[in-house]
Amino acid sequence: xxxxxxxxxxxxxxxxxLGAATARALAKQGVKIGIFDLQEDKGEALAKExxxxxxKVNVTDEASVDAGFEKVRAAIGQERILVNCAGTGxxxxxxxxxxxxxxxxxxxxxxxxxxxxxxxVGTFRCIAKSAAGMLTLDPLEDGDRGAIVNTGSVAAQDGxxxxxxxxxSKAGVVGMTLPIARDLSREGIRVNTILPGIFDTPLLxxxxxxxxxxxxAQVPYPSRLGNPDEYASLAxxxxxxxxxxxxxxxxxxxxxxxPR
Length: 260
Fold this sequence. Notes:
Shape: globular
Pfam families: adh_short
Family: Belongs to the short-chain dehydrogenases/reductases (SDR) family.
Structural class: alpha/beta
Protein name: Short-chain dehydrogenase/reductase SDR
Organism: Parvibaculum lavamentivorans (strain DS-1 / DSM 13023 / NCIMB 13966)
Distance between the termini: 41 Å
CATH architecture: 3-Layer(aba) Sandwich
Number of domains: 1
Low-confidence stretches: none
CATH superfamily: NAD(P)-binding Rossmann-like Domain
Strand order of the largest sheet: 3-2-1-4-7-8-9
InterPro entries: NAD(P)-bd_dom_sf (IPR036291), Sc_DH/Rdtase_CS (IPR020904), SDR_fam (IPR002347)
Strand content: 15-25%
C-alpha cells in the first residue's frame, strides 16, 4: 500500500506513546490521520498538529466506538489503515497472602475482566468495525483494501509474575491475528501484530532514571528502552509491504522476560 494523501488512517490510543509516534510517521507520508483516545487534551493537540481529527473513544463501549468511527470518517473519509495501540495493564498475583493479615486473597475477577475488555475485546471491536468499513472501498492497484496493525506485547509469550490478565489479553491478540487475516484475505485486508518489548512510553516516563536504566540494561542489544519511533517504523512497513500478512513480530532487542 502506497502511503500518501489518498489514504486515511485511524490510530487507537493515538494521543501518546506508540500510537502518537505512529500517527506522526503516517502523517509524514501524507496520510490523513484520525485519533481515538480517552486523553482529550493530548488527542486534540496532536490532531491539530497533524491536521487530523480526534475522537474521544472508550474501546470497551460499543456506542463510543461507533461514534468515533462516524466522526472521523465524516472528516477524513473511510480509513484504509487501522493501528490498534489502545491498551493498559496491571500487576496482581493470581492468589497471594495479604501482607498485613496473612489471609489468602485472589485476583479480583472484575479487574481481570477489565484488562481483557480493553486489550482484547476492545481491539477486536475496532478491527471488526474498521474492516466492515474497508469492505465498502474499491481495492487499490496492489489489491489492498486495507491494512490493520495490532499491538500485543512480549508478555504474550513470556509474561512476568502478576501479569496473568495482561499476558492473557495480549496472547489473545496474538491468537486472533492469523484467523482474522484469513477471514479478511479474500477482501484484500491484511492483518499483523507487533509485540513490543520495554519501550520508552508515558508508562515509564515518571519512573526514576535509575529504574529506566536498569530496565534498558536487561535488553541484550541495543541495551536501552525501545523508541516509539521504532515501533512506528515497523507498523508503517507492515502497512506498506503487501506480502506482510498474518504475522506476529517481536520488537524487543532480543529480550526474554525473566519471571520478575
